[in-house]
Amino acid sequence: MTQLALTASRLDRVAMGLSGLCVVHCVSSAVLLAFLSAAGSFLGSPAIHEAGLALAMVLGAVALGRGILAHGFMMPSAVGGLGLGVMAGALTLPHDGTEALATIFGVMILALGHRLNVMASE
Q: What digits encode the pLDDT tens for the residues 31-59?
């Protein structure tokens, strides 16, 4: 049981780190889009956002799901799922800054879910 908890905690910590990278990506994309249209169009590509969301969903499902098995609490997964839903919904918004703000909000909710998962495992 301890080994399962340690592995789940490690996955949550990796997922929180990726959430931070997502925030950095969103902010840097907005800045680069404003200053360098060529770089901004690459970083603002829908393919990058879709791949990032797919990675977040897989990592979230594994880490948060293993957390349920380790500690039995559903709340971290519910919070993380809400964050993933907000991130998915952000893909439907226009690229005028609203998408980045909604994505950052979703990432923060997802990171909170992972943090709650780590706390429940300790």
A: 776 666 555 566 567 787 788 888 888 98
State the Cα–Cα distance between residues 65 and 45, nearest whole angstrom.
30
CB 83 within 8 A of CB 107: yes
Q: Residue 90: how many CB atoms within 10 A of its CB? A: 21
DSSP 91: T
Find out whether 29 and 44 touch, Cβ atoms under 8 Å: yes
Q: Show me where the domains of the chain are located.
A: 2-121
Judge if pTM exceeds 0.85. Answer: no
Asked whether 84 and 113 are in contact (CB, 8 A), the reply is: no
d(CA 44, CA 72): 39
